[in-house]
Specification:
There is one protein chain. The protein is α/β, with parallel strands linked by helices. The chain has four helices and ten strands. A hairpin with a 2-residue loop joins strand 9 and strand 10.
């Protein structure tokens, strides 16, 4: 028995042509980006990490290539300034279900959706997430770190990587984007130790507040977060 259509969502593999040819109307892929931007495995996280203000869902007619097929339907939405990867995922899941429902309704009514080839310009690949990317580099600007923290929430969970001249700490870091830009300087200031759990971490050309282990000027070892 030949199916009318096959639907793929976040499958993670490229279907061979022999499978794509089975359904009468081909195979459809519900993809969480506005193609051709962010083809690939992690379009939601990459959109936030890159600072995109808009994303969406594309219903794509699948081809043998990686997310290269023509677009049948598309819907867009704005990315919130504080939105995390998990929150955006849930909103795009609802939008994707709506787009798929509309497409199936049209197909049942006998309406063939016209395929729109993806433009060659603007192709960007959303490479698969790697746990190593969750390491926060404090030499990067604060807005870059903020986007990474939001993009990799809930996973892979970001972890701080303090500069070489800072004390190692097992305490959790907390920082805010609402900070005024200040000239870069060493971290911590030369000859000074931490006098408060709230410490300033240099992030490129801006400063972020961080939560660090308390350290006196005379001590050279860090205090474990569990005992602090």
């Amino acid at each position: 028995m030949q199916p009318d259509v096959m639907i793929v969502v976040a499958y993670g593999l490229i279907l061979p042509q022999a499978v794509l040819d089975i359904p009468q109307y081909g195979c459809w892929n519900v993809h969480a980006s506005l193609l051709p931007r962010w083809r690939g495995a992690a379009p939601i996280q990459r959109a936030i990490e890159a600072g995109d203000e808009e994303t969406g869902v594309c219903l794509m007619q699948m081809e043998a290539g990686l997310d290269t097929g023509p677009v049948l339907l598309a819907q867009s939405l704005d990315i919130g300034p504080e939105e995390t990867g998990g929150q955006l995922h849930d909103r795009l899941a609802d939008l994707g279900a709506q787009v798929l429902r509309d497409a199936l309704g049209l197909l049942r009514a006998g309406v063939r959706l016209p395929p729109h080839p993806q433009p060659e310009a603007g192709v960007v690949y959303a490479h698969k997430l790697d746990k190593a990317e969750a390491r926060l580099d404090w030499t990067q600007p604060a807005d870059v770190l903020a986007r990474k923290v939001r993009a990799f929430n809930p996973g892979p969970s970001p972890k701080p990587r303090s500069p070489a001249n800072a004390c190692a700490s097992t305490a959790r870091w907390r920082w805010s984007r609402r900070i005024p830009p200040r000239p870069a300087r060493c971290w911590p200031p030369a000859g000074k130790g931490w006098t408060s759990p709230a410490a300033a971490a240099c992030c490129g050309c801006a400063w972020s507040s961080a939560r660090a282990a308390r350290r006196s000027p005379r001590r050279t070892t860090s205090t474990p977060g569990a005992t602090w």
